[in-house]
Structures are given as C-alpha cells and as structure tokens.
Design goal:
Length: 205
C-alpha cells in the first residue's frame, strides 16, 4: 500500500512538472508571438505605397535627419524655380510667385514688391519676355541652426531680339516649419538675399 502511495505521489509530481513546463512554454510562446506581431506592425508602418501615374510604388519611411540635406536642397531649388521662372502671362507669373512665397519669409516678399514697383513684371508681359532658371548647385550647412544655404543658378532670358544668360548667386537661412500641401518639405527660407546677378553671355536672335 505504501508502494502504491509512493508511486501516486511520484506520478503527481511528474504531472505537476509537466503542467508547469507546458504553462511556462505557453507563456514564452505567447510573449514571442506578441513581440513578433509588434515588429511586423512597426515594419508595415514604415512601408508606404504611392500611386503615381497609375503605378503603385513601394517606399519606406525614414527619420528626417537622414534626408535633411536632400530635402533642404530641393526646397531651395524649388523656391528659385518658382520665383524666377516667368513667362509673359500675368496668371503664370502670379501662380508661380504665390507658390514661391509659401516657401520663404518676408525677405522674398520684399524682393517681389520691389520688382513689382519697378515695373519688372509689367515689362516682361509687354515685351513678351520669358525667363527660365536652372539651379546649378545648392550648398547646405547643417552645422548650426537655422541652416545656411548658398545657391548658384543660371538664368536664361529670352527677348524678341536676344537671349541673355545670367549668373545668379543667392544665400539665406532655412528654418524648420510644419509640412503642408504648399510647403511639403517643411522649411522656410529666411533672410534671403541676392549676392550676384550679372550677364555672362548675350546672343542675338
């Protein structure tokens, strides 16, 4: 009888250890499953699908610091394209300048007002003059904040009798602001100034 009791006690002990092992294993498996689920959710949140021209493009989200110089250069180049790409059409001029002024502070608006008061835009329209710009280089310094930039560009001014090529050099500062449809990079150009704007070639038509 004592032998049976001892066998029963040993059997119960084995069952307890087996049950405890199964419980610990189940808890460990649940924790692992939850951890992998969080990893999968985080990975899926970093992946972005973009629809462009009827095609689905796969993209990955990243920290802004990883691309800050690229975004800053594109912001500066975009501003200059809008501000200096002009055609003899008041609606085109107005549309481009509105887009440009969303990307800069009062320093750009002051230059716009000066050009407007001097009759620059009126002379473009009356003389059927087109002005295009090609941004050659944009240098960004992120060592201090607000960031500084130095932009070198080439202007091509097409008149009825000539094509004038000009060298344009500007500089200023970049401050971070909220992103929006009008300002997708989330920068604002401050204290913008023109360092050089001179003719480098004149070609008769």
């Amino acid at each position: 009888m004592f032998t049976k009791a001892k066998n029963l006690e040993t059997a119960f002990r084995h069952i307890r250890w087996f049950t405890l092992t199964v419980i610990i294993g189940s808890i460990g498996f649940c924790c692992f499953a939850v951890y992998k689920s969080y990893q999968l959710v985080e990975l899926s949140q970093q992946r972005v699908y973009i629809l462009a021209s009827g095609k689905v493009l796969d993209a990955y989200a990243s920290e802004r610091n990883e691309n800050i110089e690229v975004e800053a250069r594109d912001h500066v180049a975009t501003f200059h394209r809008y501000f200096f790409s002009l055609d003899p059409d008041d609606k085109v001029i107005e549309a481009n300048l509105i887009r440009a002024l969303y990307l800069a502070d009062a320093s750009a608006k002051a230059q716009y007002e000066n050009l407007k008061e001097s009759g620059f835009y009126t002379s473009l329209i009356s003389g059927n003059i087109s002005q295009q710009i090609a941004v050659d280089t944009v240098e960004i310094s992120t060592a201090t904040y607000p960031y500084t930039f130095h932009c070198v560009a080439t202007q091509r001014i097409t008149r009825a009798t000539s094509i004038v090529t000009r060298r344009l050099v500007t500089e200023g500062f970049l401050r971070s602001v909220s992103r929006s449809d009008n300002n997708p990079h989330g920068f604002l150009i401050e204290r913008w100034s023109t360092i050089e704007n001179k003719d480098i070639n004149i070609q008769n038509r």
